[in-house]
Amino acid sequence: MVMELLNRLYLINGKKNCYGNTDALQTVYCEVLYIEAYYEGYDLNDYALDYSNCPMDEVLEETQNTLQSNINTGSSMTHYLAKQSVNSLLDSYEQNEVELIKYNMNKEKLSGILTSIESRLTSNTVLKTDYSVDDIGDGTVWIACATYYMERYLNLEAVQTALHVTTTGWSKCSSDVFYNWPVKDWHNGMEKIYHTLVEDYDIKILIYSGDDDSVCGLGGTMYWLTRMGWTEDSQHKWESWTIDGQLSGYYTKYLKSDGDTAIHFHTVRSAGHMVPQTQPERSLKLLQKFLYDFD
Fold first, then answer.
1. DSSP labels, the chain
2. Does 118 lie in the same domain as 217?
3. Does 119 lie in the same domain as 197?
4. Which of 123, 141, 164 is the last residue of a domain?
5. Residue partners of 152: CB distance under 8 A and separation at least 6
6. In this structure, is residue 177 part of a structural domain?
7. How, if at all, do strands 239-243 and 246-255 pair?
8. Domain that holds residue 257
9. Residue at a domain's end among 104, 123, 142
10. CB–CB of 110/86 below 8 Å?
11. Is 21 part of any domain?
12. Mind listing the pLDDT tens digit for each residue in 39-87?
């Protein structure tokens, strides 16, 4: 069922369909498919192959005592995007009723789906004070919720002073930005922005990808880069880079049509979605290369 949905999302009669096709975005057909895909995978852990989730992880809002939880109910972002699709179909129901009924999506069913999504988005649980986990049962304890320790650390006055930032209440996500982001922009790609940055501004750009990233996989990053139309530099194509003799990843430089550098692309060996978290030494080396070595 999942593969069937993916094929329908990406291709129809051999042509690009809902993804990678700006003309198809937010059509009735695609919104219905998004909702079907949501019900096939809303309870999956988005980061399961990358690192074990904190039991209270992947939340977008937190108070002192409660927070939105995705325990057994997937990521808040997953629910929110599905809610956008349902609301879009409900808002345009009158003019699209015939097509929606063809897809077995009448108004009553859509309203029921919206209610169930909102229930998942607003389910709360008590915030635990002990984030250590012994999930094997052998007495070995690991830190499952480093994110919350990070938030507490980065909100210490001494830390913010040392970083020379304005004293503020820092958090990993901004609910104000997330919930007020224009719906029409959710499925817009960044390709035009990157082209503008490369062609019109004299800045250096580094794109990196962990080769164990289960969220934004390396293959997808390379596919996206190929579609941008830049040329791989034959002198710097899939070069290995190392730290103390250990392979740390591969490097490719992409060139503009005039031969100048477009972007630098690095893979990071054995890094997951959060590269600094899963490979801190290689992440630091990458930052140093960007600051001091790249043109």
1. -HHHHHHHHHEETTEE-SSS-GGGTT-HHHHHHHHHHHHHHTTS-TTTTTSPPPTT-S-S-B-SSEEE--TTT--HHHHHHHHHHHHHHHHTHHHHHHHHHHTT--HHHHHHHHHHHHHHHH-EEEPPS--EE-SSSSS--EES-HHHHHHHHHTSHHHHHHTT-------SS-HHHHHHS-GGGTT--SHHHHHHHHHHS----EEEEETT-SSS-HHHHHHHHHHTT-EE-TTSSSEEEEETTEEEEEEEEEE-TTSSEEEEEEEETT--SSHHHH-HHHHHHHHHHHHHT--
2. no
3. no
4. 123
5. none
6. no
7. antiparallel
8. 191-292
9. 123
10. yes
11. yes
12. 777 666 555 555 555 544 444 334 333 333 333 334 567 777 788 889 8
Looking at the fold, whether 27 and 114 belong to one and the same domain comes out as yes
pTM of the entire predicted model: 0.65
Q: What is the pLDDT of residues 138-169, one digit of tens each?
A: 565 555 566 667 778 888 999 999 999 888 78
Residues 117 and 215 grouped into a single domain: no
